[in-house]
Amino acid sequence: MHPFDDNEMTTLEVIDATLAGEAVEPEYAELAELTLILAGQRPVPTPAFSDALDDRVARRFARSAASRNAGTSIWSTAQAITSIAPSSRK
């Protein structure tokens, strides 16, 4: 189940198709035109802003990868210890 009704989904599909350069049904021509007008008015980020954003994203992913690797190492170590430890069950 998705949170959109059929009309909302159709609207989003028309917008996506228009932005992708695909043709849409004539009944959606006004929506397609509005989509293109608004897309044309979109501000373009400066190279400095784009670079700063890329750096922030790269740092965030680096932390996530380090956290995942640390957790994996601990889990692997715990598994290894329990596999070689004598069993207390009899």
Shape: elongated
* Euclidean distance between termini CA atoms: 51 Å
Number of structural domains: 2
Number of helices: 3
Low-confidence stretches: none
Beta-strand content estimate: under 5%
The total of beta strands comes to 0
Mean pLDDT score: 84
Helix content: over 70%
Can you offer a commentary on this structure?
The protein is mainly alpha-helical. The protein folds into two domains: 6-40, no CATH class; 45-90. It has helices at 6-19, 29-40, 47-84.
Labels describing this entry:
mainly alpha, 90 residues, 2 domains, elongated
Q: What is the element layout, followed by pairings?
A:
Blueprint: H1 6-19, H2 29-40, H3 47-84
Helix pairs in contact: 1-2
